[in-house]
Specification:
The protein has helices spanning about 5-15, 20-45, 50-55, 60-65, 70-85, 90-110, 115-140, 145-175, 190-195, 200-210, 215-220, 225-235, 240-255, 270-285, 290-295, 295-300, 305-330, 335-360, 370-390, 390-400, 410-460, and strands at about 185, 185-190, 265-270. It is mostly helical. It has two domains: about 10-210, Growth Hormone, Chain: A (Up-down Bundle), CATH 1.20.1250.20; about 260-470, Growth Hormone, Chain: A (Up-down Bundle), CATH 1.20.1250.20. A two-stranded antiparallel ribbon has the order 1-2. The radius of gyration is 23 Å and the shape is globular.
Length: about 475
């Protein structure tokens, strides 16, 4: 068989895999890590006020307990790739599942505030690992013709995880009579909320035993025959397996392992393109999006909304987040990355500005006036919608595409670290800022959303339709 015929046969096999259903199952199982990422990140929303009350702590201490998980996230994300290269992708998933499980049990049954904080860090480490290993594994297992769609499973799983956590919290709060510290199954309601995560964590661990190791990892450790078997499973019998194994081996040998040193240069320490990536990451967080997922119940209760209703609004916000994410997935390759980012920024400015206006009014009998209350609620949903259909997805697409090949891995690591740090800064500062002036806090977020517009216009280039090799 000639090499041309082999390539044609291989291409045909990849375009129409015989086992697409099996591949979808594999990708969905790996994306359970994304589900837990979203679930664990936002489930704390249901426990914030109970933790404040149980341990009698102020806003500053409360913020550190909530935000401390992000330290674990940063460490987990920074180390997951290297661990996966040593022991395999599946083993990393199993470690993450174990850490999610242990964190859920520890967080639900803390002895004190400090061991509760420790279990939050453990959960954060699992989140960081899941944020890296899921997309990497799916990209390595998915047939090339389906890689983009299967890769989107991770982001979809994250937003579904956020929504399910809020739905579970709302249901448990109702069962406890609307009291976060109400008795439920022999525990306080907030403890059950955090402990329920054991269920998806165990499921993630079980699913990891049902999916194959990445062919790329197997080839890297000399298990070519097992790699061939898995390639046949996921790409179909019509593929020239020897050619595919050789192709992967050649790609691995020709890869440049980018390092931190490769990023240095230019007038301000890093190369300009690296600063643009950092800027995208920081703007994504500085608009205050995670306030909506970590503190929304507390936020609504602070302006007089009934606790049960506040949990319901957290759930509806997370549904809007899913809708926006689906819109972004549909249009990111049609409209382009920059237009979506600009549309999203403009929409976020409007939503945040109306929230700031509504929160500027004095409370009457512990509540916002009716008109301002409804405007604040609608504006919050508008803000989340425009974030989700733009910056929530587009930033990750940009970071995966915008860097030259020789810099991509290291630059993506630096940009992702900047994102976790910015996330921590917003999460740790919100309770104290809200105590100081809630309206002014939203003005700050609106200013960052507005500043993101000239940033994109001046510094961010469109990457739609360009090969990765074209990025200079």
């Amino acid at each position: 068989m000639t090499s041309t015929t082999q390539a044609q046969k291989s291409g045909a096999g990849r375009a129409h895999p015989d086992h697409l259903g099996h591949v979808v199952f594999i990708a969905a199982a790996a994306a359970m890590g994304g589900f837990l990422f979203g679930y664990d990140s936002s489930v704390i929303n249901g426990a914030v006020e109970a933790i404040r009350d149980r341990y009698d702590i102020g806003s500053a201490a409360l913020a550190q307990v909530i935000a401390i998980a992000l330290i674990g996230c940063a460490v987990g994300a920074a180390t997951a790739g290297r661990i996966a290269d040593r022991i395999g992708r599946i083993r990393v998933m199993q470690i993450a599942a174990l850490l999610f499980t242990v964190s859920a049990v520890g967080s639900a049954l803390p002895f004190s505030l400090w061991d509760f904080a420790f279990w939050r860090v453990v959960g954060g480490f699992a989140i960081g690992m899941a944020s890296v290993i899921g997309p990497a594994y799916i990209a390595e297992v998915a047939p090339p013709a389906y890689r983009g769609r299967l890769g989107s499973f991770q982001q979809a799983a994250i937003v579904i995880g956020i929504a399910i956590s809020q739905l579970v919290n709302w249901g448990l709060l109702n069962s406890a009579g609307g009291d976060q510290r109400g008795k439920l199954m022999g525990l306080e309601a907030w403890q059950v909320m955090l402990g329920v995560m054991v269920v998806p964590a165990v499921l993630y661990g079980l699913l990891s035993f049902a999916i194959p190791e990445s062919p790329r990892f197997l080839i890297s450790v000399g298990k070519r025959e097992r790699a061939r078997e898995i390639l046949e499973e996921v790409e179909g019998a019509g593929v020239d397996l020897d050619a595919r194994v050789t192709e992967i081996e050649h790609a691995m040998k020709s890869e440049h392992k980018s390092t931190f040193k490769d990023l240095l240069g230019g007038s301000f320490f890093f190369k300009p393109i690296v600063w643009i990536g950092i800027g995208l990451s920081v703007f994504q967080q500085f608009v205050g999006i995670n306030v909506a997922f970590y503190y929304s119940s507390t936020l609504w209760q602070s302006v007089g909304v009934d606790p049960t209703d506040s949990f319901f609004y957290s759930f509806t916000t997370s549904i809007i987040n899913i809708v926006g994410t689906v819109i972004a997935m549909i249009f990111v390759d049609r409209v382009g990355r920059r237009p979506l980012a600009l549309i999203g920024s403009a929409g976020m400015v409007v939503g945040l500005a109306f929230e700031a206006w509504a929160f500027s009014f004095d409370l009457v009998d512990g509540k916002l006036p009716a008109t301002q209350g409804w405007i604040a609620l609608i504006a919050a949903h508008v803000f989340v919608l425009f974030f989700a259909l733009s910056w929530g997805v587009v930033v990750w697409v940009f970071l995966g595409e915008m860097f030259p090949n020789r810099l991509r891995a290291a630059a993506l690591g630096v940009a992702a670290s900047a994102q976790w740090i910015a996330n921590w800064a917003i999460t740790a500062s919100f309770p104290s800022l809200a105590d100081w002036n809630l309206s002014a806090t939203y003005v700050i977020y609106a200013v960052f959303a507005a500043l993101s517009i000239p940033f994109v216009l001046k510094y961010v280039k469109e990457t739609k339709g360009k090969a990765l090799e074209e990025m200079g």
